[in-house]
Automatic annotation (TrEMBL):
Signal peptide: none
Protein's name in the database: Dihydrolipoamide acetyltransferase component of pyruvate dehydrogenase complex
Ranges of residues in domain Lipoyl-binding: 7-82
One Pfam family, short name: Biotin_lipoyl
PANTHER family per record: DIHYDROLIPOAMIDE ACETYLTRANSFERASE COMPONENT OF PYRUVATE DEHYDROGENASE COMPLEX, LIPOAMIDE ACYLTRANSFERASE COMPONENT OF BRANCHED-CHAIN ALPHA-KETO ACID DEHYDROGENASE COMPLEX, MITOCHONDRIAL
Family from the record: Belongs to the 2-oxoacid dehydrogenase family.
Cofactor: (R)-lipoate
Taxonomic superkingdom: Bacteria
Start and end residues of each Peripheral subunit-binding (PSBD) domain: 131-168
Alphabetically ordered keywords of this record: Acyltransferase, Lipoyl, Pyruvate, Transferase
Length: 428
């Protein structure tokens, strides 16, 4: 006697802040797998971050609606899961379901559609390569290995990490079409009219990079920014850190700078505002707290994780919070809510080995502080030339929000705090 199944279609949910699409990075399940409620079924990349999507259903995977690397629209089918006791053709669609604790961490489930709505029939799909570990899938994806071409050495054909590593040593015959570098100009005759050179390939901007590009264009288009900068002697701050480290531990330089920035924004609150337009009128919005963002370069592009309510925290407290936040961002695990809502951004491009930058303000914020590398330079102290640990601070600001005097006052406050940290910290 055969067991009938009912297909439940899970629609890709809104992963936060009105996002309309997401790129399917990795399937964590395959057709035929048994899944439980809230088990991660896929990794998707939005304009904010890479997140795991948990299942709102329990049962057997019937259909995977999309291939890895494909961009899916919110509200479109993501996966069909069958439960015992029904007809496969009687599929229901939902963005969530009663009994699911959370479609995504921090996001509840919602039901899409209503009774009587026509549902698509469940279609059979070819069985995906048997892979349990998302790390194995990620390893294969990073090296352009087609899992379907690998014979798994594990139980019942399970593909193991050793199988992927062995495939990496073979001639490049397993590379997926989406990952394989194609000499498009030679193969298809496509020649760029501007340069006269054959096109090797084209890569569309998606996910984080697409969102960052749009934000930068909007910032340059709408914000009349101005920039001020100053050379800063960071010797005293480095000596202070060395003394604290000798006693046990010390906050990082970025934590100290953040503490000084927060104090400076308290004295110059205009730089913690936002200018918004609506109803034919521009308005300055004031906030009762300070949310500091940190420009962070990740493998998937530039993101800005945000530390909320940074005011009132010590340098040590900020140090731990900043490290945890940036680690999640670098690992692609920061929640969408952690990658937005900032009121001021710090860009530590000194870690990239440069001194300064004409930074683009993180729209719709009013300013961004850039921190350059710290290097030995000749500097005059008390009338004498000596070698000091120097850095450059750069402040890009929205000239509609404040004038140069306010921007210079804030920048000078932060610079003075770095040059005389002991006296400043005594008053914080």
């Amino acid at each position: 006697m055969s067991v009938q199944t009912t297909g439940q279609i899970f629609l890709l949910p809104d992963l936060g802040e009105g996002l309309v699409e997401a790129e399917l990075v990795t399937w964590l399940v395959a057709v035929g797998d048994e899944v439980r409620i809230d088990q991660p079924i896929a990794e998707v990349e939005t304009a904010k971050s890479v997140v795991e999507v948990p299942s709102p259903f329990e049962g057997t995977v019937v259909t995977l609606h999309g291939a890895e690397g494909e961009t899916l629209e919110v509200g479109k089918p993501l996966i069909t899961i069958a439960s015992a006791g029904g007809d496969p053709a009687e599929a229901t669609s939902t963005g969530g379901a009663p009994g699911s604790g959370n479609v995504l961490i921090g996001y509840g489930t919602t039901e899409v559609g209503g009774p009587g709505r026509s549902r698509p029939a469940v279609q059979a799909a070819p069985r995906m390569p048997l892979v349990v570990s998302p790390l194995v899938r990620k390893l294969a994806q990073d090296h352009g290995i087609a899992l379907a071409s690998i014979h798994g050495s594990g139980s019942e054909g399970l593909i193991l990490r050793s199988d992927v590593e062995a495939a990496m040593l073979e001639p490049v015959t397993h590379t997926m079409p989406s990952q394989q570098p194609q000499r498009a100009g030679e193969m298809s005759g496509v020649v760029d009219q501007r340069t006269g050179l054959a096109e090797v390939g084209r890569t569309p901007l998606t996910g984080v990079k697409k969102a960052a590009a749009a934000a930068m264009v909007r910032s340059r288009r709408e914000i009349p920014e101005a920039t001020v900068w100053v050379d800063v002697d960071a010797t005293a701050l480095l000596e202070l850190r060395q003394g604290l480290k000798a006693q046990g531990s010390a906050p990082g330089m970025l934590a100290f700078v953040t503490r000084f920035v927060v104090a400076g924004l308290g004295n110059f609150p205009q730089l913690n505002m936002a200018l918004v337009s609506g109803g034919g009128q521009d308005e300055l919005v004031e906030f009762d707290g300070i949310n500091v963002g940190f420009a962070t370069q990740t493998e998937r592009g530039l993101v800005v994780p945000v530390l909320r309510n940074a005011q009132g925290r010590s340098a040590r407290e900020l140090d731990g919070a900043i490290r945890e936040l940036t680690d999640r961002a670098l690992g692609g695990k920061a929640a969408p809510a952690e990658l937005g809502g900032g009121t001021f951004t710090i860009n530590n491009y000194g870690v990239l080995g440069v001194d300064g930058s004409a930074a683009i303000i993180n729209y719709p914020e009013a300013a961004m502080l850039g921190l350059g590398r710290i290097v030995d330079k000749p500097w005059v102290v008390d009338g004498e030339l000596c070698v000091r640990k120097m850095t450059e601070l750069t402040l890009a600001f929205d000239h509609r929000v404040c004038d140069g005097a306010v921007a210079a006052g804030f920048l000078r406050f932060v610079a003075d705090a770095i040059e005389n940290p002991a006296s400043i910290l005594a008053d914080l």
